[in-house]
Amino acid sequence: MQYFVGPEGQRIMARNRQMLPPLWSAALSYDFTNPDMRPHRLREVIEVTGFHLYDLQFTPNWFQWTQDLGNEVVAIMNGEQPVETGMKRAADAINRWITP
């Protein structure tokens, strides 16, 4: 587990696009942000949105909105939709679940 969550393990995960690396160094690395690999321009998305994120894990509908978010992220990672479209759709889905 230490290797997996450490810098080298995270670089491998980033290079293989298996997940959004939780380490900033891996998420912003060329391994993950290479413009020749999907998703293109993800570094810009992370840089713009990263400082505005907050943890919604303990909201009543956490499972539902994380599932909706996951579906959009998978579609982005598979190249089925642009990052901008997927994140807009994800935001709309999340807001439906957490807006009173």
Structural notes for this entry:
The protein has 100 residues and is mainly α. The chain folds into two domains: 1-52, no CATH class; 54-100. Helix content is 61%, strand content 0%. It has seven helices and no strands. The protein has helices spanning 2-5, 7-15, 24-27, 30-33, 42-49, 62-77, 83-98. Helix 6 packs antiparallel against helix 7 (83-98). It is globular.
Main attributes?
about 100 residues, mainly alpha, 2 domains, about 60% helix, globular
Task: Describe this structure in a few short sentences.
Helices cover 61% and strands 0% of the residues.
Write the layout of secondary structure elements.
Elements: H1 2-5, H2 7-15, H3 24-27, H4 30-33, H5 42-49, H6 62-77, H7 83-98
Rg over C-alpha atoms, rounded to the nearest angstrom: 14 Å
Order of helices and strands: HHHHHHH
The average pLDDT score comes to: 79
Number of helices: 7
Name the helicity range: 55-70%
Content of β-strand: under 5%
Query: Shape from CA axes?
Result: globular
